[in-house]
Amino acid sequence: MDDHGDVDPYADDDPGSFNQWFPLEHEHLAGAPFKYYFVKLKSNSPEAIELFMDPRAALRGVTGNLPALPGVDADTRVTTTIVGHERTLRFRAIFAIASVDHQDNSVAIVSNKAIASSG
Known about the structure:
Order of helices and strands: EEHHEEE
Structural class: mainly beta
Helix content: 10-25%
Number of domains: 1
Shape: globular
Strand content: 25-35%
Radius of gyration: 15 Å
Number of strands: 5
Largest sheet: 5 strands, mixed
C-alpha cells in the first residue's frame, strides 16, 4: 500500500497479458480505414514510460521492450490522450487503445489509468 492508500492489484496478473499489442476485431469494423489494437501496461513500467515520453519511437519498437505496432513508421503522426493522468504512475494499470489509420499514416492512442482498489 502506498501513502495514498492504494494497493497494487496487478502484481499477480498474468505477465503474458502485459506489454503486447492485441488486435481488436469485430465484424462491424470490417472495411474500416482503421485498425485497432489494445495493450495493457503496468504503471511506472519502462514500457509505459517509453510510450508516454516518446510515443512514436515506442510504437515503432525502437526504444525498449514494447513491440512495434503494425503500420507505424518514422513519419507516422501520433496523437495521445491520457485519461486519469492525475492518478500518477503509481500502482495502476494502463489500458490503451491505438487506432492506426493507414490512409493518412497516423495513430491515435487513448490510455486509461485504472483506479486501484483498496482490497
